[in-house]
Description:
Elements: H1 2-14, E1 23-25, E2 31-40, E3 50-60, E4 63-72, E5 75-86, E6 89-91, E7 100-103, E8 106-109
Amino acid sequence: MLEAIGQLAVLFLLEGGICEPGKVVDPKTIFFTSCEGVRCHRICRPGDVLSISVKPKRMKMPLATFEGAIRVGQEKAAMAEEITLTFGLADAVVVEPAKVAVVNNEPVPLPTAISA
């Protein structure tokens, strides 16, 4: 269950939870660092539907700290007071739109300029 909370925290980082302008979190540089205050409240069984939540506590390069919880219905299943991840930033890559259209399953180059 702790792994699931950690993966949700990684997803938060990758989806742009924090960033400097022109930078993105590099997925190759995210690592689990530590976990504090973990408590398990119930056993989860096959068929249980887990509701996983994380909340950022501190975000300062190179560390991100979250608190997380797992619930089954309204019951607490597990909690982590602090999950810390380390991460690095990379330059954001701007992707230009395609210069080719597909017509009848065949690529057709788009005009670069339209004359009136």
